[in-house]
Amino acid sequence: MTYITEKARRSGVSTAAAQRRTLVSMIHIARTQLGMDEDSYRANLAHYAKGKTSCSQLTVPELFTVLEAFKDLGFKPTANKRFSPGTADGPKDERSAIRALWIFMHRAGFIEDGSETALNEWVKRMTAAANDGTGIAEVQWLRGDDADKTLNSLKRWARRCLFENLKKRGYQPDPKDSYKELLKRWERINGAML
Description:
Layout: H1 2-11, H2 15-34, H3 38-48, H4 60-72, H5 94-107, H6 116-128, H7 144-168, H8 179-190
Helix pairs in contact: 1-2, 2-4, 5-7, 7-8
């Protein structure tokens, strides 16, 4: 909802109009994803929206109802994933190191989602305890101790992943090896990925 409001504010369009446009777009995407032909689509609209057969006739609550019904039929909206800015564009501090390490972990197969969106979700969880339950929502907002603690936490996670990966492959890493030592050994075996 905030996204719609912010987008509408910037474009000068009313919130209701922007919300309506977003819902109609999502319904059309759902129709395509579900493979509905014209007759099936109109029949579904009529069924879920009190006999109306066009999105232009539907109220915002009816649009919500249709969208939820399409989700029940199997529509899976895709999340808007943001990807990390290029290192040339970003700051040269802990935040860039966090992003670089996150991307490395994704490329190495240690984490499934290497997007900025996934990183932000992780940062929010990691910083919640130190900030009265409200985590820092964006990696770009990290500063000072929060940035240091987040980077060190990510390094510890990466160290565990490197250690386990080397063990699974038959190597015998020393449990006392630091993150840097394990990374060097892993890179000798796999090639540099950073």
